Amino acid sequence: MGSQWHRSSIVERVVEIISKVGGILCTRHIRQSYRKALKILCIILLFPALLPDSVFAQEIDILLRGGHLIDAKNQINGRMDIAVFKDRIVKVSPSISSEKAKKVIDLNGLYVSPGLIDIHTHVFVGPETGFANGFSSVSPDDFTFKSGVTTVADAGTSGWRNFPLFKQQVIDRSGTRVLAFLNVAGSGMTGFPREEDVNDMDARMTSLVIDQYPGIIVGVKIGHYRGNDWTPFDRAVEAARISDVPLLVECHLPQLPLEGILSRMEEGDIYTHSFCVASDRECLLDEKGKIRPFVAEARKKGIRFDVGHGGGMFHFNVAIAAFRQGLWPDSFGTDLHRISMNSGMKNMLDIMSKYLNIGMSFEEVISRATWNSAQSLKREDLGHLSEGAVADIAVFSIREGKFGFVDAAGYRLDGDRRIETELTIREGRVVYDQNGISARSWLENQTIKF
C-alpha cells in the first residue's frame, strides 16, 4: 500500500471520511475533541500501512533460486526464482530476496516445472489377483516422486461398487495426489468375465458415485470388454454426460470400428493407447501410414489423444509417423502397473524422453506433462505455478550422451538426451531429492561430535 499512496495522507483521508459521519452524530461542542481522538485511533489502527514495505516481506519456507522455469499456463520459459510458504507458491519473479527464506535451494543449470501429472495409471493395489484391489496395481508413492510426478489419475481400476474402498485404502493414504476415472463396470478391473457383465454397467449408479466425490473422480472409463455390442460404450458415455466429466476410452481388443468410437466421443473426451498396433484394434493410421481422415476430424472436434504406453500399447513406427504428420499426444499417460514398470515404458520420464528425442521441444514436452494434462482432467488448479497455486514442483536435468529407448514391441530408438529428476516438492515439502541439493552438508551436523 505504501508504494501506491502518500502514507501521511492515508490517515488524513480516513479521518476525513469518519469525521463526516461523526459530525452528523456529535454536537459542535465536542467535534474538535472527537476529531483529535479519532486521528490518534486511526494512527494506531493503520500503523502497519505506515511502515516500510520491507518490514512485511513475505516469509518463505523454501526459495528455489536460479532455475529455468517452464510454465505453460503462465507462458513462462526462462530463469525464475520461486518462493514457497507452507503448501503454496507465494511469489514467482526473476529475483526474490532470500532475507526471509528458511531454506534456499540453488537450481542454477536445472529446469523447473509444475509437478507432473500422469493421467493413466493403475494404483488400486491390494491383496486380490488382478488390478482391482489387486497385486497387478502398484502403490503410487513408490513410483511417482522419483519421476517428478505429483498427481496421478487411476484409469478405471475401480467402479461404483468398490470406489469407497479404493479411496480409503489408497487415495486417503497416499502422499501422491490420486484422482480417478471410474470404470463403467461396477467392480472395475476384476478381469474376465466379470468385467464384461453388462448388467453391472449402471450409468446412473456410476454418475451418482462420481457426484459424491467431485474433483477426485474426474471421468468415466470404458475399457476391457470384447464383442461388437455398443451397450457398454453407450452406458459409459451416458454416465459421463450426466456428470459432465470426460470419457476415457481404452477399449482393449474391441470389435468396434474406430470411426464409430470417435464419432460417439465429444470435445474433451480422451482416447488412450493412441500410438500402437494391436490385433482387433484399429490403428489411427491407415495401411499406408497416413492419419485416417476421421481421426483428423476427431482431433479438430477436440478429442484428446493420450499415449497410454503400458506394457504393449506404444510403437515407434506409429508414434513417429503420427508425429511427423502433426498428430502429437496431448498427454503422456504411462499406463503404470506391475508389468509395464519393468518393460519398455519404465516411467513417465522415459516417455517424455522418447518424445524429446523424436523431435518435440522440451517446452512442449513439459506442457503436455503438466498444463495439458490438468486441462484433460478438468483440474485447472493444477499443472501451473501461479502465485497462490499449490506448491507441487518438479526439478529436472537433461543428461546428454548415448541412450536407448524401447517401445512395447521391444524395438529401440537411439537418442542423445534423457530427462532425469533432481527434486520433487509436493504441497511445499521436499519428497524426493536425487543428489541432496536441498540438504545441508554432513559437516554441519553438530548433533554428534567425535
Describe the structure.
The chain is an alpha/beta fold and 450 residues long. The chain folds into three domains: 7-54, no CATH class; 58-99, no CATH class; 114-430, Metal-dependent hydrolases (TIM Barrel), CATH 3.20.20. The protein has twelve helices and 16 strands. Helix 1 (7-25) runs antiparallel to helix 2 (28-45) and helix 5 packs parallel to helix 6.
Number of strands: 16
Radius of gyration: 27 Å
Strand content: 25-35%
Average of per-residue pLDDT values: 91
Distance between the termini: 53 Å
Indicate the CATH architecture of the largest domain.
Answer: Alpha-Beta Barrel
Order of helices and strands: HHHEEEEEEEEHEHEHEHEHEHHHHEEE
| Top CATH class of the largest domain | Alpha Beta
The total number of structural domains is 3
SS content category = alpha/beta
Helix count, DSSP H or I runs of 4 or more residues: 12
Characterize the main sheet. 8 strands, mixed
Q: Superfamily at the CATH H level of the largest domain?
A: Metal-dependent hydrolases
- Give me the CATH fold name of the largest domain: TIM Barrel
**Low-confidence regions:** 1-9, 52-56
Q: Helix fraction? A: 25-40%
Tell me, what's the shape?
Answer: globular
